[in-house]
Amino acid sequence: MATVYYTASSLDGYIVDEDDSLDWLVTRDIDPDGPFHYDAFADTVGALVMGSATYEWIVKNQPGQWMYQQPSWVLTHRPGIVADGHPVQTFQGEVTDLHPKLVSAAAGKDVWVVGGGDVAAQFVSAGLVDELIVSYAPCTLGGGSRVLPIRSEWRLVESAVNGEFVCARWRIAS
């Protein structure tokens, strides 16, 4: 079991552009059977957590039923944010208080810190992220939301190319 921040990034380190768009990401070629593909990763996940901006992006861009089978949490000060029918819990407080609940709900599988960068930074700062997996797209955005807006040290343990992406698995440097 690990706590993993799995995400994509532009070459200059952004998750979404200044318009909160992922068009730069979802229009790219990736092999669904290739290394670091989302489906293989999702099979290892037992619980997930995200910030309110990520949750609201999902609701706006992928309306309908909740897309994840795993227990899900949103860090927010607005408990009424959850759309009707979404089996999502909200949490307000320190991530150190939430993490044991995530681990328990994951039932031996990994916890996925979906993001965004500010949420990931809280988990990294608290020493709770074991791995960082980033798929780098061949573009720069020049602005937007940073992948990880804090200083941290990582050790590269695996890398591969999948379609247009350079993918890397990093472990926290000890």
From TrEMBL:
Protein name (record): Dihydrofolate reductase
Give the originating organism.
Answer: Mycolicibacterium litorale
Gene3D superfamilies per the UniProt record, alphabetical: Dihydrofolate Reductase, subunit A
Among the GO molecular function terms of this UniProt record, one is:
5-amino-6-(5-phosphoribosylamino)uracil reductase activity
Record-linked SUPFAM superfamilies: Dihydrofolate reductase-like
- Cite a single GO BP annotation: riboflavin biosynthetic process
InterPro entries, per database record? DHFR-like_dom_sf, RibDG_C, Riboflavin_Biosynth_HTPR
User: Residue limits of the Bacterial bifunctional deaminase-reductase C-terminal domain?
Assistant: 7-147
